[in-house]
Amino acid sequence: QVQLVESGGGLVPAGGSLRLSCAASGRTFTIYRMGWFRQAPGKAREFLSRIDSNGGATVYADSVRGRFTISGDNAKNTVYLQMDSLKPEDTAVYYCAASLSSIGTYQYWGQGTQVTVSS
Question: Within the chain, which residues score under 70 in pLDDT?
């Protein structure tokens, strides 16, 4: 089992920045990939970015490429999402997730952290 806990959400004005953290515990050595997602009210969950545990390869959604940066600290079992140039439409609950393989499904999810960007 893997447990994930997100932190770092909050209220920020448009144009501001936030850094989200996702701390993993449990059988962290089984994690192949970590991802960040978000879900706004009334909308489907949206993939944002992912990073592979071995090698650190990253992928970004078009909606956040150039504004968000994913990074990982394997020694701390923590993944970060640096969010810059935030827009009101970035307002959502942000989730981190862990995948045990490269297939693409995520088996473990955090509880989410709220990000609100004021206009």
Answer: 104
